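Need residues for this backbone.
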C-alpha cells in the first residue's frame, strides 16, 4: 500500500505549475517521449507485444503486462525518470505502469482506435479524476 500512499500523496499534496500533478506530468512525459499513443503503440509492436497494446485500445478485455515487460519495452532510463518524478524506486514505478498503463490507454481510446496526431495530453488531464478513483478502489472497465 506504500505505492498507493505515495501516489495519492503526490496527487493531493503536491502540484507542479506546468501540469497540475506529478502523476499527470510523469505519464504525459512518457507519452511525449514515445511519440504519443501512436508512438507507444509502435514501440509495443516493435517489442513483439502489439497484441497486448491492441487489447488496451480495443473494446474487449485488456491483456496484462508485467513490470519486467514494461521496463524492457520502455528502457530503464525512462522508468527511472518516471520513478524520480513520482518519488518512487524504479521497480515500483514499472509495477505501477504495468497495472495502470493498460487502463489509461483504454480510457484514452474510447472509440477503440488510436487516432493519429491526437493530443493525448488533453485526454490525460481529463482522466486524472477517474485515475484517482481507480487508485482508491473505484471500478474500471479493465
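Answer:
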Amino acid at each position: 500500500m506504500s505505492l498507493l500512499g505515495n501516489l495519492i500523496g503526490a496527487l493531493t499534496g503536491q502540484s507542479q505549475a506546468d501540469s497540475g500533478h506529478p502523476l499527470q506530468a510523469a505519464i504525459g512525459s512518457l507519452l511525449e517521449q514515445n511519440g504519443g499513443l501512436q508512438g507507444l503503440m509502435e514501440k509495443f509492436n516493435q517489442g513483439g507485444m502489439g497484441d497486448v497494446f491492441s487489447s488496451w485500445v480495443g473494446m474487449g478485455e485488456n491483456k496484462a503486462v508485467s513490470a519486467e515487460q514494461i521496463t524492457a519495452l520502455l528502457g530503464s532510463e525512462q522508468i527511472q525518470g518516471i520513478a524520480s518524478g513520482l518519488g518512487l524506486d524504479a521497480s515500483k514505478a514499472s509495477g505501477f505502469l504495468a497495472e495502470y498503463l493498460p487502463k489509461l490507454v483504454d480510457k484514452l481510446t474510447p472509440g477503440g482506435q488510436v487516432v493519429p496526431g491526437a493530443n493525448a495530453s488533453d485526454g490525460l488531464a481529463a482522466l486524472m479524476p477517474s485515475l484517482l478513483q481507480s487508485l482508491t478502489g473505484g471500478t474500471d472497465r479493465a
